[in-house]
Amino acid sequence: MRTEKYLVVNAGSSSLKFSLYEMPEQKELINIHVEKISLPDCFLTLKMDGNKIKKSKFIEDHAEAVKIVLQELIDNKLINSLDEIKGIGHRVLHGGEFYAESVKIDEEVIKNIESIIDLGPLHLPPAINVIRYLETIVSKDIPQVAVFDTSFHQSMPKENFLYPVPFEWYEKYGVRKYGFHGTSYRYITKVMQEKLAKEKLNLIVCHIGSGASIAAIKDSVCYNTTMGLTPLAGLMMGTRSGDIDPSIIEYICKKTNMTITETTNILNKQSGLKGICGKNDFRDVEELMIEGDNMAQLAFDMIKNTIIRFISQYYVELDGNVDAIVFTAGAGENDIDLRREVLNKLKPLGIIIDEKANDDIAKFRSKKSGIITTNDSKVAVYVEPTDEESIILMDTYTICQNI
Ligand code: AMP
Questions:
Q1: C-alpha angle 153/159/165, rounded to 5°?
Q2: How far is it, in rounded angstroms, from Cα 88 to Cα 96?
Q3: Short-list 214, 79, 212, CA closest to 153
Q4: Is ligand 1 within 6 A of the CB of residue 239?
Q5: CATH superfamily of 196-388
Q6: Is the dihedral of CA 277, 278, 284, 287 positive or negative?
Q7: 4-148 with 196-388: one CATH topology?
Q8: Residue among 111, 117, 113 at smallest CA distance from 148
Q9: How far is CA 83 from the centre of its chain?
Q10: Is the pTM of this model over 0.90?
Q11: 154: CA distance to ligand 1 center in Å?
């Protein structure tokens, strides 16, 4: 089979990640991460052949970032011209109710994404800008594919995705739970289907990274999830509050004279772990805990409790019929203490932690994946590294091969 090159693009609000792959081998040739776009301290990091190079350079906007990154591919002799790229896959934050699967991008797809821009005001405009810019510089024959964070959750039943608000808010404005981290949940479901040699699985997957959510998966499709209309809902996170009483917003606006936008911004960027103890990274929080910092301990206990709460809820929603609980993403894969404390609290569900196995699994330990419960645990708990990129890459490849 001939080797072909595919690009995977992830446009964030002020960042852009580009990876070039050789297919069907899924071999990553280069990974370029542009950060702080439009800020004076903008820089890009290139990872290739095990080497890492950092370049500081002011980049005005996402279009300029794309131009620079593509030039890097040519300068590093990974491609001779853009025509060598056979397909481009984009991570798109939100597909609203339009897309339960990944799609080849055309005018209608862009119009649909534009129509829900208010659901992802920070992420959707840069994604559209990058897609539009690429359309102007690559041949029309090179397909671009959108892979949505929300698609996996489109299978949720109405009673789980609707909010108890006037129904016309849903009908007129699309107010409902959409859910995020869908590519991660798809990846973990696929891995677990292979591991357990079972097609239809009931899983509780805990994606605990800087953004965090949990999904209840029934018969291998999404049944419920913690994030909502936006990724602000559900679990307490690094900088996001997760679920709070919605009246807090009006109350704080009145008390502080802040606008709703300013207050919401604080709920997104200055809350969660950071709001309680000043640090948003689990590693920093745990370091402070070791030094005896009470606020760090409080933040850790609060986040731990939100995870326990949702696992317990989903265990019941799945009728106690759970094939596995899986921890994934930065903290899920590496935070031994967090996993231990969560699992110890889940004893009433018959879950029994294997301390040694738990201690052995992390980036810096002997294993990166495996079971962390004993044989007599009622539910097996796994740690499994997620790989959202591989889902974007495979969807793009599959769609391009079938055109
Ligand atoms: P992600 O968003 O999946 O890249 O996860 C990033 C987050 O995972 C970081 O902000 C940390 O809070 C957490 N994390 C990463 N490595 C570790 C570790 N070794 N121990 C605890 N937390 C970690």
A1: 105
A2: 21
A3: 214
A4: no
A5: ATPase, nucleotide binding domain (3.30.420.40)
A6: negative
A7: yes
A8: 113
A9: 30
A10: yes
A11: 28
Helix axis angle, 247-256 relative to 260-269, nearest 10°?
110
Write out pLDDT tens, residues 215-226.
999 999 999 999
DSSP-based three-state secondary structure for 204? strand
Find the 339 Cα to ligand 1 centroid distance in Å: 13
How many beta carbons lie within 10 A of that of residue 380, not counting itself?
17
Q: In testing the pocket of ligand 1, which one of 205, 239, 281 has its CB within 8 Å of the most ligand atoms?
A: 281
Distance 345 CA to ligand 1 centre (A): 22
CA distance 43 to 55: 6
Residues 152 and 185 sit within 8 Å (Cβ to Cβ)? yes
- Beta pairing, strands 144-148 & 85-92: parallel
Q: How far apart are CA 297 and CA 378, in angstroms?
A: 30
Q: Which two tokens stand for residue 187?
A: 């990846």
CA dihedral (172, 260, 99, 331) positive or negative: negative
Cis geometry, peptide bond prior to residue 348 (ω within 30 degrees of 0):
no
CA 130 to CA 113: how far, in whole Å?
13
Residue 268 CB coordination number (10 Å): 17
Task: Name the burial class of residue 322, with classes exposed (0-12), middle (13-18) and buried (19+) by CB atoms within 10 angstroms of its CB.
Answer: buried
- Out of 3.40.50.720, 1.25.10.10, 1.10.3720.10, 3.30.420.40, which CATH number does the structure's domain 4-148 have? 3.30.420.40
Q: Roughly how many angstroms between the first and final C-alpha of the chain, as a whole number?
A: 18
CB 309 within 8 A of CB 277: no
Which run of H or E residues covers position 21? strand 16-23
Write the CA distances from 40 to 37, 59, 70, integer angstroms: 8, 8, 21
Q: Which residues of the chain have pLDDT under 50?
A: none
Q: What is the pLDDT of residues 146-198, one digit of tens each?
A: 999 999 999 999 999 999 999 999 999 999 999 999 999 999 999 999 999 99
What residue spans define the domains of the chain? 4-148, 196-388
Pairing relationship of beta strands 380-383 and 27-35 according to DSSP bridges: unpaired
